[in-house]
Specification:
Elements: H1 4-16, E1 22-26, H2 31-39, E2 43-47, E3 49-50, E4 56-57, H3 59-65, E5 70-76, H4 88-101, E6 104-108, E7 133-138, E8 151-156, H5 161-164, H6 167-176, H7 183-195, H8 198-219, E9 225-226, E10 236-241, H9 252-263, E11 268-269, E12 278-282, H10 287-304
Parallel strand pairs: 1-2, 1-5, 5-6, 6-7
Antiparallel strand pairs: 3-4, 7-8, 9-10, 10-12, 11-12
Helix pairs in contact: 1-2, 1-6, 8-10
Bound molecules: pyridoxal-5'-phosphate.
Pyridoxal-5'-phosphate binds at residues 4-6, 30, 76, 80, 108, 110, 138, 140, 146, 151.
InterPro entries: Aminotransferase_I/II_large, NHTrfase_class1_PyrdxlP-BS, PyrdxlP-dep_Trfase, PyrdxlP-dep_Trfase_major, PyrdxlP-dep_Trfase_small, TyrNic_aminoTrfase
Domain Aminotransferase class I/classII large: 1-296
Organism: Eruca vesicaria subsp. sativa
Amino acid sequence: MTVGCCQGIETMIQVLSSPKSNILLSSLVYPLYHSYAIHDQLEIRKYELLPDQDWEIDLQGVEAIADENTIAIVICNPHNPCGNVYTYHHLKKVAEMARKLGIMVISDEVFKETIYGKNPFVPMGTFSSIVPVVTLGSISKGWLVPGWRIGWIAMNDPNNVFKTTGVVESIKDLLNISPDPSTILQFALPNILEKTKKDYFEKKNLTLSQNVDMTFDALKEIPCLVCPKKPESCTSLVAKLDLSLLEDIRDDVDFCMKLAREENLVLLPGEVFGMNNWVRISIGVERSMIEDAFVRLKGFFTRHVKSQTT
Ligand SMILES: Cc1ncc(COP(=O)(O)O)c(C=O)c1O
């Protein structure tokens, strides 16, 4: 058990760091992976996600950047912030590719209870007979309790690769000298996982799905923000910023800073996730807030649009 999924990320990066190793992270990644890898001097190699192919992993690109010092590939499924859910077929290909490269898969599944699209969630552990998989999870997102700080590192390893290579021992050693989640929550966790009623998730995910529909439609009125794929999961939507339509905006950070200053509206610049000139819009809020946000966005766009494009 870990103190939220964050401690799972910290632990795995620390365990895998060694002077020559490198790790494969997607270009759009939850920034903590990046921060810990930099902190622990683990070389980062970035692979691309393909926005026009349901944000699938560019498998050829992965093979091109991996070498004999590559230790693991990190995937995020459901993907924050893109909101896609990988198919069985794609995940199997990821497993086969990782096997070919001789690397493990670390699968961040922290959003697995936050799915409202048509693709069913397939745990990466399903493919553990092909490749050893470490699954990271927590209750922060599914149960909307980020402050409770309890999560886990799960080994999917029928061939005992993690045991024989010392990975399990290293994780245990590290967790032994780190703080634990609160004992009350450790005791409560089995009940939380096993006894939460299905309709709790259904209700929450229905609201998110309605918010996503509304946001996706409202974006059509803001031509400088283009969302390539309606999210099927998670609590945000990413949109590409078309700077050619705007008069005096340099990049995503400039866009977000001016929007905050002029309209009191905060969107997250893609730079934070490693993708310049994209923005992330949060949909995990009340409907009225989304409506209000789009009134402000429209006002901002109208003021900054190039005159010949109006
Ligand atoms: C993809 C991803 N992984 C991990 C985390 C961290 O989860 P926790 O709050 O359980 O530490 C987050 C939080 O936003 C996340 O988006």
